[in-house]
Design brief:
transferase; six-stranded parallel beta sheet; hexosyltransferase activity; alpha/beta; glycosyltransferase; Glycosyl transferase, WecB/TagA/CpsF family; 288 residues
């Protein structure tokens, strides 16, 4: 399977736009006032451009703090959500607490957009995790931020590394490690992250394992943005078939994967629960 993603416009920097100028003049000072709670998960009523700009501003502030050795921000966590992920987090208190304190939660599925409208707190648009991650890569390339890739298998990581270096020549990838972290490997990875001190850490262990790893280790990661990209490393490396563009754009990648992998049928039960909880919040427990 071909692994060159330069033909996909969201995965390349081969255009005439300047990513710094693109986001420089976006005012995010009032973003905190556009915070809403959908069921049990907080989101910003913001566009993809708003959240990328917010991320850039936070990275710049963290870089300034590091240069002056004054204070710490700690790990800034970014998580994507669709109905299935919403329910998975909903019943895990420690995960729910972490998500409540996260830097950004992305409405990555059509269901979250539907939920926001049903609860009278409409979000402006779906925000693709892959699109958000690739915009961070563009910014990292332009501003010389450093990146660490953690997750998946070695062969996938090597393909992903090659793709990034091909499309973003000079991108500062300071570390990469597979997602198999049993025993001493886990400590080696934490030590590598501490030593390389990246600006952005992409965690691609799969959504569940990634959430658990981040929850267990976030206090040891320092000042950086941590993005749980789930299983997207395989998609970006070209080792796994992507959902059709129309399906992905509509936010139904999760449904496409369930249909193509019937053993995941139980996820439909969780989505059904999400729907009935949405109706409950809409009609019986309205929140501010």
């Amino acid at each position: 399977m071909r692994n060159d993603f330069s033909l996909d416009p969201v995965l390349t920097n081969k255009d005439d736009s300047d990513p710094i100028l693109e986001y420089k003049n976006i005012d995010t000072s009032l973003l905190a006032a556009r915070w809403v709670l959908l069921g049990k998960i907080p989101f910003y009523q913001a566009t993809s451009a708003d959240l990328v700009a917010h991320s850039i501003h936070r990275l710049d502030k963290m870089r300034e703090k590091k240069s002056k050795s004054t204070g710490q921000f700690g790990a800034q966590l970014v998580f994507p959500f669709d109905p299935y992920r919403y329910v998975w987090v909903r019943f895990r208190k420690r995960m729910l607490k972490m998500v409540d304190e996260s830097f950004i939660n992305l409405p990555d599925g059509a269901g979250m957009l539907y939920m926001s409208r049903a609860l009278g707190k409409p979000l402006p648009e779906l925000i693709s995790m892959v699109g958000y991650a690739m915009n961070l890569i563009r910014i990292a390339h332009a501003k010389e931020y450093t990146v660490f890739l953690l997750g998946s298998r070695d062969e996938v990581l090597e393909k992903l590394y090659t793709n990034f270096r091909r499309s973003f020549a000079g991108l500062r990838i300071v570390g990469r490690h597979n997602g198999y972290l049993k025993g001493a490997a886990g400590e080696r990875v934490l030590e590598a992250v501490r030593k390389t001190d990246p600006h952005i850490l992409f965690v691609g262990m799969g959504y569940h394992r990634g959430m658990k790893w981040i929850e267990q280790n976030r206090a040891q990661l320092g000042d950086l943005i941590v993005v749980n990209v789930g299983g997207s490393f395989d998609t970006l490396a070209g080792t796994k078939t992507k959902a059709p563009h129309s399906v992905a754009a509509a936010g139904y990648t999760w449904l496409w994967r369930t249909i193509n992998k019937p053993y995941r049928w139980h996820r439909l039960l969780l989505v059904a629960y999400w729907f009935f909880e949405t109706m409950y919040f809409k009609f019986f427990k309205k929140e501010k």
